[in-house]
Amino acid sequence: MSIILIFLFIFQILLLDKFYEMVKRNDIINVANKIEKNIGNSNIEDYIQQKSQSNEMCIMVVKESDILSLNSNMGCPMHRLTKEDLNYYINQTNTNGGSLLVETFVPTFDFRQHENTQSYSQEKGFDSLMYFKSVTYEDVNYFIIVNSNITPINATTRTLSIQLFFISIVVVISTILLTYILTKRFIKPIEDVNSAAKSLYNGKYNSIEKINSKEIYELNNTLINASNEINKADKAKRDLIANVSHDLRTPLTMISGYGEMMLDFPEEKTDENIKVIVDETKRLSSLVNDLLDFSKLQENKIKLESNNFNLSELIKNVLTKYNFYIQSEGFEITYNYENEVIINGDDLRISQVMHNFISNAINYSSDSKKIIVNQIVKDNFVRIEVIDFGKGIEKESIPFIWDRYYKVDKEHIRSSTGSGIGLAIAKEILELHNFKYGVISDLEKGSTFYFETPVIEIL
Fold first, then answer.
1. How far, in Å, are 13, 178, 265, 325, 365 from residue 354 at the CA level?
2. Could you tell me how far CA 247 lies from the centroid of its own chain?
3. Residue 392: exposure state from Cβ atoms within 10 A (0-12, 13-18, ≥19)
4. What one-character-per-residue DSSP string does 173-219 give?
5. Of 31, 46, 95, 394, which is most buried, counting CB atoms within 10 Å of its CB?
6. DSSP 8-state class, residue 81
7. What are the contacts of 291-294 at 24+ separation with CB within 8 A?
8. Where do the DSSP E strands lie in 325-380?
9. Which residue in 401, 304, 413 sits closest to 349, CA to CA?
C-alpha cells in the first residue's frame, strides 16, 4: 500500500507539470496535422473554427503570406504577431524541416490606469505553446499556426498534495484496522491450527473451537479426520503386530517343544513328531513369505510375469493341497465348472490369490466346514467364486475387510492356515492384474469372495 502511495505522489505531484505539457504538445501537433489534411477542403474555415472551439486553441492559416483563416480570442499571442514576426517564424520553420514548436510567455494585461495608460504586467502571465507547420498543396504554400495556453497548475498540484495527504492518512488507518481484523479472523486461527497440528504425528490434535473462516473450519476438520485416521492406523498396526506375533509364537512353540521332547526322550523321535515340526516350519515359512510379499506389493517391487495358462487346472492343483483338511478335519470342498478356460496373467500370483481365498474360507467357515468353488463363464469373462457358509460379515465392515490391518473379529483367532493378511495380499495382486473383485456376504449365511477376468480360450 505504501508503494502505491509513493507512485501516486511521484506521478500526480512531481511529474504532473511534465505530463500536462506533453499532452498539450501532442494535442496542438495533432490538430495541425488534421488541418493539413483538410487544406483543400472548401469548408476549411468551418473545420478550423470547429477545431478551435472544441480544443480551446487559437488557429491561423496563412496562404502565400495572406491570412486565410484566423480563429482566436483577444488574449491569444497571435494578435501580437507582426508581419516581420510571421516572416521570421516562416523562415525558422522551413529551416527546421517544415515544423517548429515554440514556448512563449504571455504577460497578463493590467486594466488599472497608470498615467492614463493601460499596460501589460511583466511579472504575471502564463506560458503558451505555438506550433508552426509549413504545407504545400497544389503548388501553393500554406502556413499553419496552432496556439494553446498552458494553464498554471500550481494550485491543482497543491490541491492534489493535500488530497493525497488525507488519503494517505485514511489508507494507513484502514490498513491498521484491516490488519487487526485479518489477524483476529484469519491469522490467529491459523496460528492455533498450526500449533495444534504440531502434535499430529502422534495422532493427537486438539480441535479449535472458535473459527470464523469457512476455509480454516474445513482445514480444522481435515486435521481432525487425519488425526482419527492416524489413530486408527496406529491401532491397526498394533493389532497386526499382536496377531502376527501370536501366529509366529504358535509354530515356534510347537517346533521348540517337539524338538526338546525328542532331544530329552530319544524314543519320541517318531515320524509323527517329526512331521509336526516340518508342518509347523512350513506354516512359519508361509507366514514370513506372506509378510515379505505384502511388503513388496506395497512398495511396487513385484512385477507380474504374465502368460496364458489354464485357470481351471490351476484351481484343481491348489485344491489338492487342502486334502489334509478334507481328510483330518472333515471339510467338504467342491469345485464346480463346465469347461476349462485359458486366461492371461501371472499364474504364480493367481495361485496365491486362490490359496488366500480358500484359506480365508476355511478360517471362517465355522461349523459347516463346507466350501464351494464356482467357475462361471459369461460374455467372454470368467468369474471365480469361493463360497463359505460361516457367520458372514456385517455390511458396514465389508468395505474394510481388504484393508491391510483390518480384522473382522475383535479378538484374535488362530488361523488354520495362512498369515492373517491373505485378503490384503489378494487385493494387491488382483489390482495389479486389473481384475474386478469383491465380496458378497450375509450374516449367519456366509460369504462369497470372487474375481473376474477376460477369457482367452474355452477348452
1. 85, 66, 41, 16, 16
2. 46
3. buried
4. HHHHHHHHHHIIIIIHHHHHHHHHHTTGGGT----------HHHHHH
5. 31
6. -
7. 291/244, 291/419, 291/421, 293/352, 293/425, 294/404, 294/421, 294/424, 294/425, 294/428
8. 332-336, 341-345, 370-378
9. 304
- If you average pLDDT over residues 246-273, what whole number do you get? 82
- Terminal C-alpha separation, the chain: 80
Query: What are the b/e assignments for 69-98, b being 16+ CB within 10 Å?
Result: bbbbeeebbbeebeeeebeebbeebeeeee
Average pLDDT, the chain: 78
Which position has the grid cell 490434535?
A: 205
Q: Is the pLDDT of residue 119 over 50?
A: no
Which helix (H) or strand (E) segment is 13 a member of?
none
SS3 breakdown of the chain: % helix, strand, coil, rounded to 5? 55, 25, 25
Beta strand 332-336 with 370-378 is: parallel
Give the number of C-alpha atoms closer than 13 A to the C-alpha of residue 286, restricted to the C-beta side.
20
List the grid coordinates of 215: 476455509
Nearest to 334 by CA among 307, 361, 308, 367: 361
Per-residue confidence at 283, pLDDT binned at 50, 70, 90?
Answer: confident
What was the pLDDT predicted at 342? 96
Tell how far CA 411 is from the center of its chain.
44
CB-side exposure of 376: number of CA atoms within 13 Å? 11
Report residue 266's pLDDT band, with 50, 70 and 90 as the boundaries. Answer: confident
pLDDT at 420 (0 to 100): 62
User: Over 60: is that where the pLDDT of 410 sits?
Assistant: no
| 124 residue type, one letter | K
In whole angstroms, give the CA distance from residue 418 to residue 449. 16
Confidence of residue 307 (pLDDT cuts 50, 70, 90): very high
